[in-house]
Each structure stands twice: as structure tokens, then as C-alpha cells.
Design brief:
Rna Polymerase Sigma Factor, Chain: A; mainly alpha; 9 helices
Length: about 190
Amino acid sequence: MEYGDAELVQQAQGGDKVAFKTLVERYQRRLLSVVIGMVRNQDDAGELVQETFIRAYRNLEGFKGDSSFYTWIYRIAVNLSIDFQRKERKRTTIEFDETVALGDTEAATGITSQGRDPFVQVRNRELVGKVFQAIEELTPNHRAVIMLREVEGLSYEEIADVLGCSMGTVMSRLHYARKQLQARLAEFG
């Protein structure tokens, strides 16, 4: 029998470690996807996701169920990612890894390079690089709304819950982020 999040949280709050492990398995990949999109480094993202679940476990007793577990855990991950980005920005610029990004994009879209015009392949590779570079140049808050909306497909309401802001703020940040991306990618029309 597969339990829903609410039942698993309740069991985990009662000390059932297997229930919490099930929640980790349920959300680990999705969180990793969002965090990689935000911090652009798989090793750092893995550590941030691990820290997300550690914090969630430590604070599980305080989870009241006012929002879904899904929203709560995403809020922790996004906040950790934003904090990490602010610290990293002070230290160094994170480099874009084209091989990781292209591999992820091809796997996610199912598009392969077999039978393609080499010019199209080069242009697509260049576009993917520009998209990731443009996303990296956004502020952490703008990058978060883009990743949560466009990659994870969260609703405005869910994003507002995750980021702890109003839906109006989400819409404003999303509009600004899209305009910034559009301006940076205009040459690819």
C-alpha cells in the first residue's frame, strides 16, 4: 500500500524512519533537479539536497501541515540554494558545464543528435549554453521562480508558498525574469 505524504509525515513524526526515507526517495530527484538548475553544480546541489533533508528531519516535529510536505521541502531547498548562491557570488563565478547541460537537455527532451544537420546541432548547443548562461545571470530570487515555474511546473500559488511571498511578487519576479531572459536570448530569435 502506498501512503500519501500526510500519512508518511505523521508516521515519521512518530519516529518511523522508514516513512521519512520514503519521503526522501519520493522527492530527492525532483529537488536535485531544481537545485542543480539554481546552483549549476551537481556536487554542490547534492550537498544542498542532503542538507535539505537533514533540516527537514530535524524540524519535522514543527511541520504542522499548513502547506503540503512537497511545498515545505521545496521551500527549504530553495532557501538553502538562494543562500548558497549569495555566498558563492561573493567568492567566485560558477562556470557553465556544457557537457552536463547538454546531456540533461537531451535526456529531458528526448532529442538526440543522430541524423541532424551539423549546423543545427552546433546552433542548438550554442542556444542551450546561452540559455543556461542567461539563467545564471539572474538574481537568485528570479532564478528560483524561473526554475520552479518552468522546470518544475509549480503553480503561482505553490511558488508563493515555497518562496514565502505573495502571488503578486511571484508574478512580478517571473515577468521580470522572462523579460531578462528574452533580452539576453534575442539574437537566437
